[in-house]
Write a structure and sequence with these properties.
- There is one protein chain.
- Helix content is 78%, strand content 0%.
- The chain has three helices and no strands.
- α1 packs antiparallel against α2 (32-50).
Length: 63
């Protein structure tokens, strides 16, 4: 992975986190499903960029 791709992926993950936090910031209750979805989105983004097929497959497999 090139350094530029890594920086782009990190920036994309941070933007995803910022959007999620912005959506949840003014709410008193947030479901665990919503938090799990946000974390899974970030994990999938980072795993896909890293080329970690095993991590990507495990992330997509329901528990």
């Amino acid at each position: 992975m090139t350094e530029t791709a890594a920086v782009d992926t990190i920036a994309e993950a941070l933007a995803l986190i910022d959007r999620g936090l912005g959506d949840m910031q003014h709410r008193e209750l947030v479901s665990t499903d919503e938090v799990s979805d946000l974390l899974l989105d970030v994990r999938l983004l980072l795993a896909a960029q890293h080329g970690d097929d095993e991590a990507l497959e495990s992330a997509l497999t329901p528990n």
